Amino acid sequence: MANIKSQKKRALTNLKRQEARKGQKSDLKTRIKKVLAAVEANDKEAAVTALNEANKALDKAVVSHIKHKNYASRQKSRLAKAVNTIQ
Q: Which of 16, 20, 31, 58 has its CA 20 to 30 A from that of 2?
């Protein structure tokens, strides 16, 4: 542990942010899995709704520097392609 007061505060702040980022990453993964589950079930309406939520979460992750913009665009493309395979 640090000896300097400001570094002690910084360590605590870092732990708080780490927990927040962990929750955001988990939420993002869950939304992606919902899209894939709806595609597996051949439920077009649920898949489109889940895709919109996943896209929103991916955009938020890019803005808050949790994920890289190329990762987000790759996931969006992949998920849209999966949803479009449903007839």
A: 20
